[in-house]
């Protein structure tokens, strides 16, 4: 059986979320920072009159901060009926992966990303890290 993922990069790594979770992808929109909010909360964005929370996935996954000069992209996902924007470095392609390409996260992976990953899919010369969107937005 195959699963379709929208892919994106963070710090040179390829991540993906299931297509059915994605509402749309956008070039970075202006964000309003929220005083005293956790570092993972990148702020609020106005998407055609709807106010969305924007999460910094780099911060969430314990990755180094992005270069401020790089234009960020947003993956808008729906979780429990609510739209949330995920800040990513770049958007990739939509890919189909087969169940036999899947591997669970190794036990040696202990950083914050282990709890936020469903596992990895072995692609041609690369790994696709499957993000658990429910956990990523709840963390």
Tally of separate domains: 1
Average pLDDT, rounded to a whole number, is 89
Strand element count = 11
CATH hierarchy, class = Mainly Beta
CATH topology, which one? OB fold (Dihydrolipoamide Acetyltransferase, E2P)
Short structural summary:
By secondary structure, the protein is mainly β. The protein has helices at 57-60, 113-116, 133-138; strands at residues 2-10, 13-18, 22-27, 41-47, 50-56, 73-79, 82-88, 90-98, 102-103, 117-123, 126-131.
What does this structure look like?
- The chain is mainly β.
- It has one domain (2-138): Beta Barrel (OB fold (Dihydrolipoamide Acetyltransferase, E2P)).
- The protein has helices at 57-60, 113-116, 133-138; strands spanning 2-10, 13-18, 22-27, 41-47, 50-56, 73-79, 82-88, 90-98, 102-103, 117-123, 126-131.
- The chain has a six-stranded mixed β-sheet with strand order 8-1-2-11-10-9.
- The protein is globular, with a radius of gyration of 15 Å.
- The N and C termini lie far apart (30 Å).
- The mean pLDDT is 89.
What labels describe this entry?
single chain; 139 residues; mainly beta; OB fold (Dihydrolipoamide Acetyltransferase, E2P); five-stranded mixed β-sheet; 3 helices; 10% helix
């Amino acid at each position: 059986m195959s699963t379709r993922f929208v892919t994106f990069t963070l710090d040179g790594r390829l991540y993906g979320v299931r297509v059915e979770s994605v509402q749309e992808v956008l070039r970075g929109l202006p964000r309003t920072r929220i005083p005293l909010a956790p570092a993972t909360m990148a702020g609020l964005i106005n998407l055609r009159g709807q106010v969305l929370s924007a999460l910094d996935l780099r911060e969430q996954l314990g990755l180094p901060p992005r270069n401020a000069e790089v234009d960020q992209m947003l993956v808008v996902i729906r979780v429990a009926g609510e739209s949330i924007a995920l800040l990513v470095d770049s958007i990739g392609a939509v890919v189909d992966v087969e169940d036999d390409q899947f591997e669970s996260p190794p036990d040696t992976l202990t950083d914050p990303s282990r709890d936020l990953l469903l596992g990895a899919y072995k692609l041609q010369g690369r790994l696709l890290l499957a993000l658990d969107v429910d956990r990523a937005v709840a963390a």
